[in-house]
């Protein structure tokens, strides 16, 4: 691929590391064509850490040589590469206290956790939150963020990962292979769902009236369709896809909200401050070299990652 063009508001970043996300697998499989109508060929990769090598004429926040991390806008992905151009508003200075590989693991899952718990759920001190798949990429960050926000945190995990999620701050840990979570917790204010399907439907039962389940794995809802600027046909289709879960939520007197995370340099700066303060620590499962990117994708797709994120390193 040719070097990406640099717009007036863009920074050109030499990528040192990027991380693998389920979003990459879904995009490659074509599962998100309605939301992300990319035209092939395109480069995968949704978050990264690297060094700025050039800036556009209107860039004021950054200069060549700055170490940064980012989740590019959904229309400008391509982190499995040596170079990427992004709007300066989507970029933040890399946290100083962690490695480049650790920084690359953070943007997408960190922004997902922030937008779910802070923006959508407005999680407050003393509230109770259930975070599914606590040892996953989103879960490991969400547990730590929820504890920072003063919440009581329950999470689901397999038996081999119980100690990890406890070390991240989980107050209640449910071994989902041995216990049905809906029989263990009740009257919760918030559920963060990263699994979807039956797990999402059962999550409605653990919420108190007025509670909310924020899902990154469930069906898109009308609010998301509106935010996306979708045409009337697509809006109708998304409303139909989520009709059942929204109806069940209303019966339980709770709310259902679908979240498709957005790029935000401002929120990444908030996350950086928490990382440098020692409040949030990234969890990296394994690092692959750039030449083994396909193997890294397969490693995630086959469910071989034990906890946290898988990272691709572009430079030694």
Short overview:
The chain has helices at 22-29, 100-104, 107-120, 137-148, 162-167, 197-203, 222-228, 232-241, 243-251, 265-276, 293-301, and strands spanning 10-20, 48-55, 67-70, 83-87, 91-93, 128-131, 152-157, 172-175, 188-193, 207-215, 255-258, 284-289, 309-313. It has 316 residues and is α/β, with parallel strands linked by helices. It starts with 9 loop residues before the first strand and ends with a strand.
Describe the structure.
This protein is an alpha/beta fold and 316 residues long. It has 2 domains: 128 residues, Quinone Oxidoreductase, Chain A, domain 1 (Alpha-Beta Complex), CATH 3.90.180; 151 residues, Rossmann fold (3-Layer(aba) Sandwich), CATH 3.40.50. Strands 1, 2, 3, 4, 5, 12 and 13 form a 7-stranded mixed beta sheet that branches. A 6-stranded parallel beta sheet has the order 8-7-6-9-10-11, sandwiched between helices. The model has no long low-confidence stretch (mean pLDDT 96).
């Amino acid at each position: 691929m040719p070097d990406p063009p640099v717009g007036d508001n863009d920074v050109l970043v030499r990528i040192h590391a990027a991380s693998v996300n389920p979003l990459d697998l879904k995009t490659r499989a074509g599962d998100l064509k309605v939301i992300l109508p990319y035209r092939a060929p395109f480069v995968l990769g949704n978050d990264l850490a690297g060094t700025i090598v050039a800036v556009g004429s209107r860039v004021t926040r950054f200069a060549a040589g700055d170490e940064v991390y980012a989740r590019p806008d959904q229309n400008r992905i391509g982190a499995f590469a040596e170079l990427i151009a992004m709007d300066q508003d989507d970029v933040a200075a890399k946290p100083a206290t962690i490695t480049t590989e650790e920084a690359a693991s953070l943007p997408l899952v960190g922004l997902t956790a922030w937008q779910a718990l802070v923006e959508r759920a407005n999680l407050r001190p003393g509230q109770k939150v259930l975070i599914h798949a606590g040892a996953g990429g989103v879960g490991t960050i969400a547990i730590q963020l929820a504890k920072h926000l003063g919440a009581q945190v329950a999470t689901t995990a397999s038996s081999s990962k119980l100690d990890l999620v406890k070390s991240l701050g989980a107050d209640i840990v449910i071994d989902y292979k041995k216990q049905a979570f809906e029989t263990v917790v009740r009257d919760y204010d918030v559920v963060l769902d990263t699994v979807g399907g039956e797990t999402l439907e059962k999550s409605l039962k653990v919420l108190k009236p007025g509670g909310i389940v924020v899902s990154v794995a469930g069906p898109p809802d009308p609010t998301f369709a509106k935010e996306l600027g979708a045409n009337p046909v697509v809006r109708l289709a998304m409303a139909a896809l989520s009709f059942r879960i929204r109806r069940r939520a209303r019966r339980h007197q709770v709310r259902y909200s679908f979240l498709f995370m957005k790029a935000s340099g401002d929120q990444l700066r908030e996350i950086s401050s928490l990382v440098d303060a020692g409040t949030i620590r990234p969890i990296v499962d394994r690092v692959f070299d750039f030449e083994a990117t396909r193997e890294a994708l397969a490693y995630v797709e086959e469910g071989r990652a034990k906890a946290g994120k898988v990272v691709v390193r572009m430079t030694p």
